[in-house]
Amino acid sequence: MFSPEGPTLRELAVQALSSVERGYDLLAPKFDHTPYRTPDRVLDAVARALEPMGPFPAGLDLCCGTGAGVGVLARVCRRSVTGVDFSAGMLEVARRRLPPPGPAVSWVRADARALPFGPAFDLVVSFGAFGHFLPRELPGLFGQVRSVLRPNGCFAFPVAAPPRPGSPGYWTLLGFDAAMRVRNALWRPPFVMYYRTFRLGDVGRELSRAGFRADLHALPEFGHRPDGSPRARLVVARRLA
Predict the structure, then answer these.
(1) More confident residue, 170 or 5
(2) Which one-letter DSSP state was computed for residue 119?
(3) Closest CA to 57 of 40, 82, 35, 38
């Protein structure tokens, strides 16, 4: 995090006291050198899981950030790939990246809760963005995704198994979320970023209510927990007609 290429402690503090949009605008030039950027290992695992389901004509990377996930879509979409994000700074970095080979790539600035598209996509993916949405926002968010998918289109995103209660990871996430709640109670504008609000059971119910049929696909690259359950899964939700 505090490598010469990454943000300084002061820069992170300024970001944390900003709005989500302004914070990511500030972080954008160094975002790819932080742990917030989705690791290539996750991106590659998702691409491998999606390849047997494709190819897809057109894909959308929801909350694309600096564009790391666009490479996944380029591997499984044959006609076009679009990245959408509400941070102008993140999109500026994305536009400077060398586009992956394959389909045409475009970038659009928009809020995921009010997407400026009709049913133009066959696949929507998202990586690491759901902590920026409160649980009460999920119905509207999933409704927006459904509205931009063609019938039988797919909405896919990876989820990690939650850490065991009492484990170091559990206390780390609990502490982070508690600190964010205190920050948002004392400071405006709020910075919505929580790690423990996106629960798989709730997500499945909201996807069903939004008009999706959701399936879980294990990502074997990440192994299994002691109880035999996968450490990571890919949620693949198909839009019902």
Answers:
(1) 170
(2) S
(3) 82
d(CA 136, CA 139): 7
Residues in the chain: 241
Q: What is the spatial distance between Cα 43 and Cα 120, in angstroms, rounded to a whole number?
A: 23
The 10s digit of each residue's pLDDT in 125-164 is 999 889 889 889 999 999 999 999 999 999 999 999 888 8
Cβ neighbours of 179 (radius 10 Å)? 11
Find the angle CA(217)-CA(117)-CA(95) to the nearest 5 degrees: 80
Q: HSE (CB half, 13 Å, CA atoms) of 113?
A: 10
What phi and psi values does residue 31 have, to the nearest 5 degrees?
Answer: -60, -40
Instruction: Count Cβ atoms below 10 Å from residue 217 Cβ, excluding itself.
Output: 18
Packing angle between helix 138-148 and helix 200-209, nearest 10 degrees?
Answer: 50
Distance, CA of 178 to chain centre? 22
Instruction: Reduce the DSSP state of residue 149 to 3 states and report it.
Output: strand
Q: Which two tokens stand for residue 240?
A: 């019902």
**Whole-Å CA distances, 174 to 142, 156, 163, 190:** 26, 26, 10, 18
Q: What's the pTM?
A: 0.90
Residue type, 235: V
